[in-house]
Amino acid sequence: MQKRKNREVKLVFAVLTAIFLIFLAIPVAGLLMKSFVLDGSTGITMENYQQVFASKGFAEAVENSILISCCSALITTILAFLLAYTIHYTNTGKRYKALIGKAAVLPMLLPTITYGFAIIYSFGKQGLLTKLFGRQLFDIYGFNGLLLGYVIYTLPISFMLIHNTMGYVDKKYMIVSRLMGDSPWQTFQMTVLRPLLGTLASSFIQTFFLCFTDFGIPASVGGRFEVVASVLYKQMLGSVPNFGNGAVVALIMLIPSVVSITVLRVLEKYNIRYNRISVVELKKSRVRDAAFTVISAAVMLSVISIFAVIFVVPFVSEWPYDITFTFDHVKAVFEDSSLSDVYINSVLVALVTAFAGTLLAYGGALVTARSTVNAKLKNIIEGIALITNTIPGMVIGLAYLFSFSGTALQNTFAIIIICNTIHFFSTPYLMMKNSLSKMNASWETTAMLMGDNWAKTIIRVVTPNAFSTLLEVFSYYFVNAMVTVSAVIFIAGTRTMVITTKIKELQYFNKYNEIFVLSLLILFTNMISKYIFQKLAEKSQKKGKNQKGKKKDMKMTMKKNFKKIAAFALAAVMGVSAMSLTGCGNGKTDDQVIIYSNADDEAIESMKHALDGNGYKDQYVFQTFGTSELGGKLLAEGADIEADMVTMSTFYTDSAQAQNKMFQKLTFDVKTLDKFPEYCAPITAQEGTIIVNTEMMKENNLDMPKSLKDLADPKYEGFISVTDVSSSSTAWLMIQALISEYGESGAKDVLKGIYKNAGDHIEDSGSAPLKKVRAGEVAIGFGLRQQAVADKAKGLPVDFVDPEEGNFSLTESVSVVDKGDKTKAKAMEMAQCIIEKGREELQSYYPIALYEGETTADGNISGNPKVFAEPLTVDLLKKHQELSEMCK
User: Fold this and answer.
1) Rounded Cα–Cα distance for residues 629 and 233 (Å)
2) What's the gap between Cα 65 and its chain centre?
3) For the chain, is the Cβ count within 10 Å smaller at the N or the C terminus?
4) Are 583 and 495 in contact (CB under 8 A)?
5) SS3 (DSSP) at 78
6) Distance CA 490, CA 636 (A)
7) With contact defined as beta carbons under 8 Å apart, do 498 and 492 qualify?
C-alpha cells in the first residue's frame, strides 16, 4: 500500500519536473549558453565574460546592487515585523489590525512600473507631497529613490511571510517565561524572535532578491546609482543589444541563488514547530499599544501617501501647471478601443494563470509536505522553488523569446500563462507547503487502511481542508499576473497584449495621465478580486468550524461543495482558455497585417490616416515598442517575428537584415534623396534639440543655453537631463553633434562636463529627459525636436533651442518581413501606401525632406540641420558608445 502511495506521488513529481525542465531549465540553459557564443558567430569563447568583467562600472554596479538590496531587505523586514507584531502582540482594535493587513499589501496590487512614476510625482521637485510641504523633502534619484521604491515594492511579501508565521507561534510560552522571572527583553527574544528566526531570514533573502533583480524602479529613479539589473537591461535591450554579454550578466545574477539555498537549508534547523497553538490573553500595556499604533500608522501613511498621487494627477488638466478638475484623461483612456481588448486579455490571462499555478503549487506542496518519498526528490522541488524566486522576470522572458520563437507557442496566450505560472511559483508553493504541513499527518494512512488510495484521500480529505489556502494561492497568482510586466513584455504579441504592456507602450509616448488611469483600473480589479477570494476563504473556514464534531456530515458537505466549486472553476477556465487561445473577442483576425513600429504617436497617427484613407481601414493592426525592445525582437526572432511589416530605425533594420536576412526587396519605386537599401524606405527623419522648462529657467535665474557646449558650464549642474547612448539611440544625436563640431577629443571634454552636470539624470529612456523637463524635475534636457514642438503647441512651459552645433537626425524606415509562402501581399501594398500617401502629413511633424520633390516648410524647418560625415552604422554607434563611457 505504501509503495502504491509513493507511485502516485512519484507520478505527480514526474509531471512537475517535466514542466520545469521544459519551461525553465532548458530555456534558461539555452540563454546561458549564449554567454559562451559571440553574437553573430557559432564558436565557443570566453570573450563575453572578458568584456563584461573588463567593462567600466560593472564591479561598482554589483556592489551597488548588493548594498541597496541589503539595506532595503533589512528595512523592509523590520517594518514588516513591526506591522505583524502590532497585529499579533498588541491589544489595538480589530478594525485597526484589519486596516494594517490591507494597507501592507496595497503595493502588490499595482504594477511595479507605476512605482517610479508615483515617487517622481510625489516627491519630485513638482511632486504632490513636495507641494504640500512647500519644499522637496529629499533627493529622489539614486540611493534614496531606490531605497524608497524597493521598500514599498517588497513590503507586502515580507509582511505576508512574517504575519502568517506569527499566527502559528504559541503565545503561552510568554507567560511561562515571565513566571520564570525573565526580563521583558529575554521573553521577547526567546518567545518571539527565536521562533521567527527562520522566517525573518527567509524574508530578508526573498526581499533581497526582489530588489536585486528588479529593473522597473531603477529605470525611473536610479540616476547614476547603477545596479546589475540596469546593466542587464542595457546589454539585452540597449541601443545595440549584446545577447552574449547579457547572458553573462544574467548568469552572474543567478549566482547569489546558490548562496541563498545554502543559507536557508542551514536556517531550517532553527524553525520551531508547536503541537498546538494556545489562545492566550495578551498582557495589557497602554505604552506598548500606543507606541506600536503610532509606528504602524506612520508606516501605513507613508505607503498610502506615495500612491495618493495616482488618485490626483489623472483628474487635473495638466499637473502641475493647470490643476483644474477634469475627467478628460479618464474618458480618453476608456474611449480607446484597444483598452477594452487588453483589459479583457489581462483578466483572462490572470484567471487561467491562477488556476494552472494553483494546481502546480499544490502538486509541489503535496510531494514535499504530504508524502514519504525520498528526501532527494523533495529537495528537487525545494530547489525549484528557490530558483524560480531568484531568476529575474527579464531573464525568463528573454529565455522564452529565444527558445520558443518559430514554435506554435510564439505570441500566444499560452506562453504568457506558462511564463507567469513558472515565474511566480515560489511563494504560492511555500504557502501551500506551510498549510499542508500543519494538517494531521495520519490522514493518508488512516484513509488507506479504510481502502482509499492516496489520490482519493487528497481529493476527499486534504483538499477540502486546504480550500482556504488554495483560494489564497489562486488570489496571489491572479494579482501577480495582473501586475507583471518584466517577462511578459518580451513574449506578448499584437493579439495577446495585456494591460501592463499597454502601460509600457504609453510610457514610451509620455502619456502619464493615462498610465495612472490604467494603474487605477488594475488596482480596483485586484482589490475586488482579493475581496471575493477572501470572503470565499472565510466562508470555507466558517463552515469547517461550525461543523466541527460532525465528521460525517462535514466530510460529505465539504466534498459536495468542493466538487461544485471545482467543476465550476474548471468549466470557467476551459471557457476562458478557449477564448484566450483563439483570440475571440479582440476584433483582430489572422487576415490583418500586423505592423510593428517604434514610431512616435504623431507618426503612427499619420500612417493610420494614410492607410484608412486609401481603403485599408480595419485591415491592419499597429503594435508599438521602444526602439531597443523592438530591436531585440528583430535580432532574436528574425523572420519568425509576428509582424508582417516593420517601421524601425534604419540602422537597426540594417543590422537585423545582415544577421537574419528577414526583409523582402521592395516592389515599388523609392525615389529618395540619399541612397537606401533595397529592402527599406525611409518614413521619417528625427532631429535632436535642446529642450527647456521656461518656468524652471526663470525660477532659478538660468541663462538660456545656445549650444551643447554651454550645457557643460558648471552653473547648470543639477539642472540637466540627457540620455545614455548605451541605452537609447536618441543620445546619439547629441554625440554626433559634438564630434562633428569639436572632434573626438573636444567632444570628450564637453561630454564630461555635461555628464557631471546631469549627475543622477543620465537616463536610459530617450523620452526621459523630456519627461523630467515637463514635470519640472530639471530645467534643461536633450531630446527629440518634434516632441518639444508638440509640448510647446499644447501651451506647456516647454520650449526648445536648436544648438549651434547642429540638429542631427536619424531616419526610420518601413520594411516588409519575408515569411516565404506566408508573406501577406497586402503588407507590401500598405508599405507603398505609407510612402506615397502618408509622407505629406508625416513631414508636417518631421520636416526634413527625404524624397525627390519634397521641400521643408519654413515654419517647421529646424534652425541648424546637419548630417554626420560618416554613414550611420551599428559599428559607428558602438564606437561612439565607447567614447561616451570614457566620459562618465
Assistant:
1) 10
2) 18
3) N
4) yes
5) helix
6) 10
7) yes
Other Cβ atoms less than 10 A from the Cβ of 132: the count is: 10
Q: What are phi and psi of 470, to 5 degrees?
A: -60, -40
CB-based contact 880:820 (threshold 8 Å) = no
Among 823, 335, 824, 338, residue whose Cα is nearest residue 621? 338
pTM summary value: 0.80
Within 113-161, strands assigned E span none
The DSSP result for 787-831, as a single string, is HHHHHHHTT-SEEEE--TT-B-EEEEEEEEB--GGG--HHHHHHH
Per the listing, cell 527583553 goes with 185
The C-alpha cell that represents 205 in the structure block: 533573502
Distance of alpha carbon 708 from alpha carbon 712, whole angstroms: 7
Dihedral over alpha carbons 627, 633, 636, 637 (to 10 degrees): -150
Asked if 158 contacts 80 with a C-beta cutoff of 8 angstroms, the reply is: yes
Q: What integer pLDDT is reported at residue 560 of this predicted model? A: 52
pLDDT tens-digit series, residues 190-238: 778 888 888 888 889 888 888 888 877 887 788 788 898 888 777 776 6
Among 672, 572, 826, 719, CA closest to 125: 719
Cell triple for 445: 494512512
Element at 506 (helix H, strand E): helix 499-508
End-to-end CA distance of the chain: 69
Q: Which amino acid is at 327?
A: F
CA nearest neighbour of 648 among 835, 815, 851: 815
- Eight-state DSSP code of residue 853: T
Listed residue (195, 201, 176, 166) closest to 89, CA to CA: 166
754: nearest Cα among 773, 731, 772: 731
Residues 6+ apart with CB under 8 A from 93: none
> Could you read off the pLDDT of 873-887 as tens digits, one per residue?
778 888 998 899 889
